[in-house]
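Lecture 7 notes: from sequence to structure.
We start with the chain below.
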Amino acid sequence: VDDGSTDDTGAVLSAIHDPRLRVITQANQGISGALNAGMRAARGDYVIMLGSDDRFLPHCLARLAAAAQARPNAVVVYGRARGMDAGGAPLAVTTGAPLPYPDNPLLSALYGDFVATIAALIRRDALGRVGYCDPTLKGNEDWDLWIRLGREGEFAFVPEVLAEFRIHPGRFTSAQHDRLATLLAGRRAILDKAFAAPDLPPEVAAARPVIYRNASIDIGLRWLNVGAYRE
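Predicted structure tokens for the same chain:
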């Protein structure tokens, strides 16, 4: 999905002659709008999201697909992702971790964002039930999606590094980005939306103080990382 790019993305894509590649070009709609366009156009049993500055390792899709077939009740099958610098050299930072509550994906997703998005295979029928990404969000759209999918079925973790995400000053989630305030405010808004549901399981409702504490600590650490001590 070319979401209103202003560089040579279109020319690069048109030079790739592969019948498996379909290009959707649209006016800029933001991250959620781009992801939703791709999800709605998908034809397969599974969907996976890959940002423009990230990459899969060669065995990523085969490993996740095999794990998904072995766990038919899992709506999300995910592995780990490793950071890389602007030139593609590997970094020590990783994302993706086992569920904090192995038998409760909803509680786990609310407790913290443990899914490595670029290493997460999602069943497309489950996406249709939860309604894709929330277009009103200006970030954290993946975390919001994991929370909603947590009510649909199991999550299965593959303890391997399967993808790499690029760390550079211009990335949307960078600590130096001018949209950091919007990004962090959205984390509380996502929790507010989740806890407004009238039919939350009792164990999830009871964990609300701990869940908001975790989000507040995460927000504080991100501000600390950029020296914004007052925030």
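Points to note: The first strand starts at residue 2 and ends at 3. The CA atoms of residues 32 and 136 lie 8 Å apart.
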